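Our platform keeps sequence and structure together, in a single record for each protein. Nothing more is needed to write down the fold, since each code stands for a local backbone conformation. An entry from our holdings is shown next, in its original layout:
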Amino acid sequence: MSFKLRSCVWEITLACCFSCKYCGSKAGRPRENELTTEECLRVADELAALGCRRVSLIGGEVFMRPDWDIIVRRLTSQGVRVAVITNGFLFRPEHIERLRAAGVESVAVSVDGPRRVHDKYRMEGSFDRALNAIDTLAAAGIPVTVITTLNAENAPLLEELFAVLREKPIRALQLQACSPMGNAKEGVDHRFDVQEVISFVERHMNEVDFPLGIADNIGYFTENEDRLRGVRGGGAPFTGCRAGLSAIGIDSAGRVRGCESMYDDSFIEGDLRERSLKDIWEDPAAFAYNRGFTKALLTGACASCPHASKCAGGCRSYNYFVHGRLYEAPFCALAARNRAPATDSLQKNADFKAN
């Protein structure tokens, strides 16, 4: 079977101005062996040659790598759409012209709660700087979105955060689950009530002019599944983990994974200093956890789920880091709703914390 590469998340540096308690990559200092500018340009060419349509650049903090816009320009000059994901702390007005000249499609700013919570996990003043970055980008006509990573502390505060963000000139708001990897393995309680998050999206998704949705590690297949993932017209249900099927991740040292959230050496499929991206992508033995998937691999409630052929057990990365079972979604909303009656809130919490 031939697999077509469509999207890539590329960590161009591990350098960051923060060392957040929930950072999955333990960012802070750059790796000693990060790809050089020339190596990055070669990788950009390889992505374009394989037909990759979209690249999301992440860090660390993208703007801490001086040649970030050179890399972007190499991609966009070949028709690849590029989004930059930033914490907004180092963003300056002078970045605007560099973003425009490089042809960036959009910029996503991380905002992880109301000021007191966001600043607690990052740095005092970081919330206001993130909002200032949003305003500056939007005023310059650059599409800006917000990504919020949820954990036990900030998920219950979504209404408070939303009251701020709904007044901002953003193009989309995506909610994703904090995965217990990297710093988050010890520094934060990743658990939250996914049903409450889904209910929050259902309450508000038609109230604002921008798409409001959940990421692929939250769900799945409750009543409004086809509308919960940020596509306002619907028709966008979760179609299973795309790692190694149509998506890849690349870290700043040039190591390739199916997804950059699969931040464990066991998922490394190859090194771009040793093999071409084409060779890694077309290797018949690569990405076996997804390319060799069958429903027989599903465990737990996923094994008997009527949506098994579509969902395929949810997000591989989240499954792996939460409980080590790749083919079983640990906090599936549909499974929770189908369990024995648990309408009492204390029973819900007991079930949730037992997972």
User: Anything to note?
Assistant: The two ends are 36 Å apart (CA to CA). Residues 340-355 have pLDDT under 50 and may be disordered. The longest strand covers residues 144-150. The beta strands are 7-11, 54-58, 81-86, 106-110, 144-150, 173-177, 212-214, 247-250, 255-257, 270-271.
